[in-house]
Write a structure and sequence with these properties.
The protein is an alpha/beta fold. It contains 8 helices and 7 strands, in the order αααβαβαββαβααββ. The chain is 33% helix and 24% strand. Strands 3-2-1-4-5-7-6 form a 7-stranded mixed sheet, sandwiched between helices. Bound molecules: S-adenosylmethionine.
Amino acid sequence: MPLGYRLANVYRLVDRLFFESEKNSPLCALAQQAMDVSSLRRGATVLDLACGTGTVALWIAAQRPDVHVFGLDLAGEMVEQARAEARRQGLGNTTFLCRSIFDVDAAAFRPPDGAPDAPAAGLDMVVCSYGFSAMPQHARIFAASLDLLAAGGRYVIMDVHYARAGRRARLAAATIDRWIWGSDQLKASWPVMADALDGFEKRDQPFRLYGVIPLVFFTARGRRSQP
Ligand SMILES: C[S@@+](CC[C@H](N)C(=O)[O-])C[C@H]1O[C@@H](n2cnc3c(N)ncnc32)[C@H](O)[C@@H]1O
């Protein structure tokens, strides 16, 4: 397991450095716009993929008490923190699963008040906030999550986006992301995503992480919305 996931405290430290200002927070104005939670239908299900300590999942759950938000992460300590915070805020519309995306199927994402043997309809939205750049096997993880999305569901990605050229960008990718997260971001999966998703849109953010690394949003509808 890469260094960055081993200890929730290491993660929290990196998290604080990453998201130190409101502008590059996972909940910045652009992120809120991309997620557009007000447009979710009543009773919708949302997955915060690689939720970490649950920042995004908890925010969505607080905005929309009438939707159910799942957070999924394989790091136990982080999931525990997310659960504790949900309890503290009294957010009963959340479920945090300590699992790998490779070990779940659609049945794991039924809202608790739904009929237990009804076929799982698929998620209305998958959000992945600064996850793909911090996960090994990101192309496979993306494919597994896409299978869980309902027809016409929304996919929102907020992430760092390394330039492939340039000494400083290559150095940052080789050290921070390969070494701490094991993600090898120079072999980024963005082109795979653009091919797989319907209505794929990229929006660059107007600032750079550590003053060097561009940040980006991708929003899309699921592939299954195609006629
Ligand atoms: C940078 S953190 C995510 C940050 C979080 N989304 C946020 O906005 O604060 C990346 C996370 O990916 C999780 N992860 C890596 N591989 C995974 C997998 N196969 N399934 C689920 N989670 C995974 C790690 O445990 C880690 O918490």
